[in-house]
Amino acid sequence: MAVRGYPGWYKCGMNYPPQPNLPPARPVQSRKYRVWAHVLLWTPIALTVTGVVLGLGLFAAADADPAYGSSALGYIGMFVWGALVVLSPLLLGSFVAGLVMWSRARR
To answer: Alpha-carbon torsion 63, 65, 67, 68, what sign?
Structure first.
């Protein structure tokens, strides 16, 4: 009595009801995974905003009083912005990885 027209035909005669077609259970992301997603997402944003504001502040302080001899602050501001340019691939990579992890944790 092999009836091959329904799922589970190989269990014919074993008195098992056919299994329902359910989607596979979604993987549950751990708390540690979600924390790392937020760290990788928000750290580059915080570093970039801090660097831009710090650079602008240093430029403004260097430009405020040229007689005081504060031109070194302008060079430090340029150094901060140069560091942002050099580190931008790393910051972008961290942001994208955090965004992917965050979206997986939200599903």
So the answer is: negative
